[in-house]
UniProtKB/TrEMBL annotation:
Residues of the Uracil-DNA glycosylase-like domain: 67-245
Name of the protein in question: Type-5 uracil-DNA glycosylase
InterPro entries documented for this protein: UDG_Type-4/5, UdgB-like, Uracil-DNA_glycosylase-like, Uracil-DNA_glycosylase-like_sf
Keywords: 4Fe-4S, DNA damage, DNA repair, Hydrolase, Iron, Iron-sulfur, Metal-binding
Species for this entry: Streptomyces pathocidini
Length: 259
């Protein structure tokens, strides 16, 4: 039974109830954007939309959960962390409107996986080629740190997203240790053979996970997150990011030269 008798989008079990019912990614994305299951995240994302940064005072913030981005037949998935309070939470699109996104989309464009090198608004014409961007947490969290409970509550959305992508999905690039740790249980529950001990995260890590009988293997690639800290300190360079993305595209069988 839902917490305190609640059954709508503000119920704690809303993701677990709704995600499995999504017939396609369009329906899943619509349900994600309705979710209010985590009170702390709801309060934070909406507060960020009211108390805006000076540079964005004229913006009408999205201030809702941010759905995934990319085609329904993607061969490659990119799994990050969560939207930024004044990036995706403002624009309503993953990695759009912040410096992390500037780095990611420039790299995707450079290796032929995006139609343009920048992502500024939801209607700026950006297209991804063979790539779907997903996240283990769909709401902007305080200090960019969702709690384990919030991650668990949000997990059904990611599980269903991967299930819907399953017919074409062949590789996943994971940005950062948080996304890696969040993704492995989802893959294991879906039938991919993750094994014990579970593979550790590292930049350049490459793990091939056997699928259920008769299904292709899934290639899992680690990459440092495109955070400002990692980029400014040189821990992750544009060349390093391009290399991992190109490798992922090749493993997924994507002709990454555009549409």
């Amino acid at each position: 039974m839902a917490e305190h008798g609640r059954t709508g989008p503000d119920a704690a079990d809303f993701p677990a109830r709704r995600a499995p019912k999504a017939r396609d990614l369009r329906e899943l994305d619509r349900d994600v954007a309705r979710c209010r299951a985590c009170p702390r995240l709801v309060a934070w994302r909406e507060e960020a939309g009211r108390v805006k940064r000076k540079a964005f005072l004229d913006w009408d913030y999205w201030a809702k959960p941010v759905p995934g981005l990319g085609p329904p037949d993607a061969g490659l998935a990119i799994v990050g962390l969560a939207p930024a309070a004044h990036g995706g939470n403002r624009t309503g699109r993953m990695f759009t409107g912040d410096r992390s996104g500037d780095v990611l989309f420039a790299a995707l464009h450079a290796v032929g996986l995006a139609s343009q090198p920048t992502s500024v608004t939801r209607d700026d014409g950006l297209e991804l080629y063979g790539v779907r961007i997903a996240a283990p947490v769909h709401c902007a969290p305080p200090a960019n740190k969702p709690t384990p409970e919030e991650r668990s509550t949000c997990r059904p959305w990611l599980a269903r997203e991967l299930e819907l992508l399953r017919p074409t999905l062949r590789a996943v690039v994971v940005l950062g240790a948080f996304g890696w740790q969040a993704l492995l249980p989802v893959l294991a529950e879906a039938g991919w053979q993750v094994g014990r001990p579970r593979p550790g995260f590292g930049h350049g890590a490459h793990v091939e996970l056997a699928g259920p009988a008769g299904e292709p293997a899934l290639h899992l690639l680690g990459c440092y997150h495109v955070s400002q800290h990692n980029v400014f300190t040189g821990r992750l360079t544009p060349a390093m990011l391009r290399e991992v993305l190109a490798h992922g595209a090749e493993l997924a069988g994507i002709d990454h030269t555009g549409p």
